[in-house]
Amino acid sequence: MITIEHGVFRTLCAATMLAGALLSGGAASADEQHQIRIAKQYGISYLPLEVMEARHLIETRAKAAGLGDVKVEWSQLSSGAPMNDALLSGNLDVVSGGVGPMLTIWAKTKGNYNVKAVASINSMPLYLNTVNPKVTTLKDFTAADRIALPAVKVSIQAVTLAMAAEQQLGKADALDSLEVSMAHPDGMAAMMSGKSEITAHFTSAPFMYQELEDKRVRRVLNSYDVLGGHSTFNLVWTTSKFHDQNPKLYGAFFAALDDAMGFINGDKKAAAELWIAAEHSKLALPFVQRILDDPENVYTTVPQNVMKYATFMHKTGAIREMPAAWTDVFFPEIKGKAGS
Predict the structure, then answer these.
(1) Which of 197, 189, 192, 200 is nearest to 147 (CA)?
(2) Among 41, 136, 287, 295, which lies 20 to 30 A Cα-Cα from 246?
(3) CA-closest candidate to residue 251, choices 76, 213, 328, 259
(4) Do 8 and 40 contact (CB within 8 A), yes or no?
(5) Around Cβ 127, how many Cβ atoms within 10 Å?
(6) Nearest CA among 80, 85, 87, 271 for reference residue 184
(7) Which residues does residue 38 pair with via DSSP β-bridges, in sequence order?
(8) Contact call for residues 156 and 126 (beta carbons, < 8 A)
(9) Extents of the domains making up the chain
């Protein structure tokens, strides 16, 4: 039986700027915020952020850094595009999403907002699944099919599909007309209903695994095959203004993210239990733990294969700037890692 994961949507709030006195001995700086607004998306790929929220890791790290009590506000959105809009409008401080939206906003804001990535939050595959029995490869899709994904053109699923279309069909835009923007839970519901124009869904965990529990569903594509190995799915990013003006708060976020990775990789069962509780999920614990135990799914801050996405997006005109190296699109705190 298919269980639809909706998550909890929380509205965005305006930031409150608090001042303190810059004192020696670790007291809060007058230049630093005492509030951070973070947005995550749907799915178990955002587990590190769920861990940070549930275990109050940012608050703990901020207090240890001398910032005192810091207010952390969490929101949940459906794709990277609205994340970027909220970040640039000043309604969010740190956002999350796929490599595609991150590279898009990096290129668009170079020289002004100078948005860059903080770190990866995972390397995980994306599956293109279908209920159309006539479809076994990309070549089998017809004008009658529709492929649900988080956001046409800009989502990481859309970019990956374009890469696959170029490899298999000779044209990156060969399947563009079939794409439909839908949040992961809605895309899954539409495809599984059998009553929608949606015959395929390019999605992530846990949705892709839930779909494959149904004998009608087959996997058409694995993003790891397109990228030639493990690759970053999701990252977190922010503006240079936030990074530069809030060194302690940024550092607290960065350290808390590492803490979350340690928790997940140290106890997969506890991490699965935390995610189920945080998302009010009806998925069984063994099912969720199998996802976390799958070697395809790696929770790490280290970027992988980001440059392959950047090269493709620059070649197709999706981004006007081409980074010389993966470190160009990340803030310096992560640059000691062996990324790609």
Answers:
(1) 200
(2) 41
(3) 259
(4) no
(5) 22
(6) 80
(7) 74, 94
(8) yes
(9) 35-123+232-334, 127-227
In this predicted structure, the answer to whether residue 87 has a pLDDT above a threshold of 50 is yes
**What is the enclosing helix (H) or strand (E) of 2?**
none
**Is CATH 3.40.190 the right assignment for the domain spanning 127-227?**
yes
Residues whose CB is less than 8 angstroms from the CB of residue 127 and which lie 6 or more positions away in sequence, other chains included: 202, 203, 204, 208, 212, 219, 221, 222, 223
What does the alpha-carbon distance between residue 270 and residue 273 come to, in Å, rounded to a whole number?
5
Provide the CA 318 distance to its chain's centre, in angstroms: 19
CA distance 296 to 301: 15
Worst-scoring range by mean pLDDT, 12-26, 154-168, 261-275, 308-322? 12-26
Q: Sign of torsion, CA 282 287 289 294?
A: negative
| Of 194 and 245, the one with more pLDDT | 245
pLDDT digits (tens, 9 = 90+) for 316-327: 999 999 999 999
Mean pLDDT score, 219-231: 97
123 has which bridge partners?
Answer: 232, 298
Task: Please give the Cα distance from 223 to 156 (Å, whole number).
Answer: 10
**Residue 38: its H or E element:** strand 35-40
Q: What is the pLDDT of residues 37-76, one digit of tens each?
A: 999 988 899 999 999 999 999 999 999 999 999 999 999 8
Beta-carbon contacts of 223 under 8 Å, excluding residues fewer than 6 positions away, are 125, 126, 127, 160, 231, 233
pLDDT computed for residue 83 by the predictor: 83
Position 3 scores a pLDDT of 46
Same topology, domains 35-123+232-334 and 127-227? Answer is yes
